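task queued by scheduler; priority normal; single chain, no ligands, no partner chains; default sampling; output format set to structure tokens
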Amino acid sequence: MIKNEIGKIILRVGLGLIFFAHGLSKFQGGINNTVGFFDSIMSMHHNKKPSGNNSEGFSFRC
């Protein structure tokens, strides 16, 4: 049982460090860059033309 707990702690600390480093790099790169990225995603979503029977205007091909 103690090995399970140690493994969980190591996993949580490792993932926490990864997420922290990723967020820190985004923050240091400038919040305006992050906002610009999300704005570009939203503009791509709003510029889609309906093509098909689905209600959101997206068409999926296999």
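post-processing summary
- Helices lie at 2-29, 31-46.
- The chain has a mean pLDDT of 80.
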